[in-house]
Each structure stands twice: as structure tokens, then as C-alpha cells.
Structure prediction request, 225 residues.
Amino acid sequence: LLAPTEMSSPSLKTGAYILIGVGALTMLMGFLGCLGAVNEIRCLLGLYFTCLMIILITQVAAGLVIYFQKETLKEELSRIVGSLIENYDPSNDDERNLQDAWDYVQTQIACCGWAGAKDWENNEILINQSMTAYPCSCSNSSKDLQVDSGFCNLDVPVNSTATYADWPVHEQGCMDGVEKWLKDNLGIILGVCTGVAVIELLGMILSISLCKNIHSEDYTKVPKS
Prediction:
């Protein structure tokens, strides 16, 4: 079985913590923004502006980290997926969620393994079965369409051996599949990111405007001596 440390990655952990922090900050930000706007409290609007600015800076920083550390992230993902494939066991309920997630990736992207189907030759169960079975989620055969997890048996004579080249599976590795998906959807991804950034900037401008209006109203209310 995989030890917890084998399925961990410093970069992925950092990214997860950042997402958790941004999510919590977003909830706090929304509460402060509503409270400050309704009650015209300048300090809360100032906090709302600060939270939006921190989130925007964090998003830009995360994008830069992903761009400049993409090779490191790719190596870590390769190590993690390699360990997952090597220890993949349909009867292991402790790792079921993780294995189901990987089966889903292979099914949706129509890929097999990280670099290719050859990665599955390191799986202990398939080795014990002389490679006469293959991961169902990799299958490109119509008869396996209803099965998206576990192993499917290869039609070979009894007591024979096989290799990944004999499997009816997708030739494309998931690494290439993910990269292709990102390239194909780059415009949509950039559009969504730009839209989110614009909304955040509008929120910052609006909070500053409200602060100025409140300040002006407070100034007019001050009695002249």
C-alpha cells in the first residue's frame, strides 16, 4: 500500500493550502463588504478592499508559480501517478477515492498511464497475472464501455503472457492528454481568469468610491464653527 508521504507533494500541498486560505478569505470578504456597504462603515469597506487586493495578488502569484515551476510540478505529478499506478488495487478500499479519481481521468481524457500504457507494466497485480489483464479505464474497446474501473481480462490462451502492446487501450499518455486539453481550452481558461480579475478590480473601485462618499457625507455633517 502507498504510504501517505508517497502520495504527497510540497507544491500540491502549498497549492491546496492557498486555495483553502483564499476560500476562507473570500467568505470573510463577502461578509465585510455587505456589512460595510449596508451600515456605511469605512473601516469594513477598507478591509473589503484589502481582501480583494490580497486575493488578486495571490491569484497572480499562483499563476506565475505554475508557469515558472511547471517542470517541477510535472516531475512531482509523474512520481505521484507512478506510485498510484504501481500500487493500484481495486480491492483496496482505503485508496478507493484516489483510484476512482485516476480512473475518471483516464476515461475522460481517453489516455492510459502518465507517459503511456507501459507505466501499467509496473503494477503488482498485472505482473502477477502475466499482463493478461489491463485497466478497464484505459480501454478503447466498445465492450468495456460500461466498465470504468478495475481490471479487464485479455482474451489470450491459458498460461500465456502478454505485454501492454497487446492491450486494447489508448496509446496516448495522460500527461500529453492534459497538456492537449489545456492548449485546446486556453482561450476559455484565460477568459475566465480575466473575467474574475475584472470583477475583483470593479469591487475594489466600488469599495473605494463608497469610502470616499461616506467621507464626504461625514465632512458635510460636521457643524461649522
